[in-house]
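step: validate -> pass
step: tokenize input -> pass
step: predict -> running
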Amino acid sequence: MVLIKQLLILSLVIAGLSCNRNRVTIDGTVDGGGGTHIYFERLDVNRTVLVDSVEAGINGSFSISAGVEEP
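step: predict -> pass
step: emit ->
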């Protein structure tokens, strides 16, 4: 019974630490895009708002992460 409680507590702690509800991460590769700037924008009703930007690596790979308020 003690082992079951410990496993339950451990699984809840792991689940709680792995939740990342308010962040989004986008990973990708741009073919032939070494050094290209990647812009992450939010679309409002009548305009776009720059959230963040990154420069793709030599091989065109990039990773961008930002906080979000809603899905």
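step: describe -> The chain has one domain: 22-71.
step: cleanup -> pass
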